[in-house]
Amino acid sequence: MSVTVRVPAKVNVQLAVGAARPDGFHDLANVFLAVGLHDEVTATPSPDGLRITCDGPDAGQVPLDRTNLAARAALALAERYGRDADVHLHIAKDIPVAGGMAGGSADGAGALLACDALWGTGASREELLDICAELGSDVPFSLVGGAALGTGRGERLTELEVGGTFHWVFAMASRGLSTPAVFREFDRLGEGREIPEPVASRDLLDALAKGDPDALAATVSNDLQPAALSLFPELADTLAAGRAAGALASLVSGSGPTTAFLARDAGAADAVAGALRSSGTCRTVRAAAGPVPGATVIREEPDQ
Ligand code: C5P
């Protein structure tokens, strides 16, 4: 048998970051929105033990060893249920790698759900969410999807109401940014300054609930943006190109370097995407709308 799970990318419409904690992580008020760019993870029994393969435009940058979150998810589930992680995980990758869109986290959540279905472990949703939180701060959201507020290090989720579909354009950069490096730069830039407790913006949550793109555009924010720009100054040109093309809002997605542009509707998103493509300030451009569901089993096939 084989099981295929589809998992969305995310954009952070608000990312409020507190001071570094003693464990090195940062408390966050992280408002996630799942958007329609997806990876697919297929799990198939593998008599030779755990194996990872990957295809897609960025596949060359994906680690195929046990540092891959998909491998770690399979190993964590196998350990919990006292079995071997004898599985081949194939990742069909469409989410940019090291882009600030939770592509690695998506593969972790996807592998977990696929192995769970393949092995028939019967794990509860809470157990799966616990394993996701162990794997990484963004992994629980990849499982849940939709829209959610993440607190703690981002792993404690409260699902949010969204009153409409938001249309986005994403500009992928010529290289990646390391999330720990961006957080370290955030700490460096904030040295000697009082960092306030991160709090979700009431106006932003209202804008999401109403499905109002103008109100959302007025309230989006990302505390990691100055750090991402400091490490990758050319991103300022991409942000300016999107604004000039009529985007309602432009911001760095998560720790970057993908930049995100909010448009009023699908037609406006196409126009912004076209202008960004011809601006020469990014590698590729994709339009995607959200919210969309989290990790979902889309195929279960018996042995051939
Ligand atoms: O949880 P995850 O493995 O995705 O985090 C990657 C890195 O990002 C952490 O090692 C840490 O440097 C940084 N991080 C952080 N605070 C968070 C989430 C991530 O400092 N809330």
UniProtKB/TrEMBL annotation:
Residues 205-279 form the GHMP kinase C-terminal domain. Its EC number is 2.7.1.148. Gene3D superfamilies: 3.30.230.10, GHMP kinase, C-terminal domain (3.30.70.890). Keywords: ATP-binding, Isoprene biosynthesis, Kinase, Nucleotide-binding, Transferase. Pathway: Isoprenoid biosynthesis; isopentenyl diphosphate biosynthesis via DXP pathway; isopentenyl diphosphate from 1-deoxy-D-xylulose 5-phosphate: step 3/6. PANTHER family: 4-DIPHOSPHOCYTIDYL-2-C-METHYL-D-ERYTHRITOL KINASE, CHLOROPLASTIC. Belongs to the GHMP kinase family. IspE subfamily. This is 4-diphosphocytidyl-2-C-methyl-D-erythritol kinase. It comes from Streptomyces griseomycini. The lineage of its organism: Bacteria, Bacillati, Actinomycetota, Actinomycetes, Kitasatosporales.
